[in-house]
Write a structure and sequence with these properties.
This protein has a domain of 42 residues. The relative contact order is 0.22. The chain is an all-alpha fold. The protein has 3 helices and no strands. The protein starts with 19 loop residues before the first helix and ends in a 5-residue tail after the last helix. 55% of the residues lie in helices and 0% in strands.
Length: 66
């Protein structure tokens, strides 16, 4: 049987800035702290610019959770 997965949304309860990373982590079933650490390390390694753009785009695209 197919497992139901809630739609991808920004987190309302576990947010630091806009809830984007927490929403992604909840969607894929990953620890939020680990997801944030991976995102920060990836952004720093890529000189932060692409990470900031991706975050802002996801902030604009992802609907807010209920």
């Amino acid at each position: 049987m197919s497992e139901y997965r809630a739609p991808l949304r920004r987190s309302q309860s576990n947010r630091m800035i806009a809830g984007v990373i927490a929403g992604l982590a909840e969607y894929i079933g990953m620890d939020v702290t680990l997801a944030r650490a991976i995102f920060v390390i990836g952004s720093v390694v890529s000189v932060a610019f692409p990470g900031v753009i991706v975050y802002v785009l996801l902030w604009l695209i992802m609907p807010e959770g209920v």
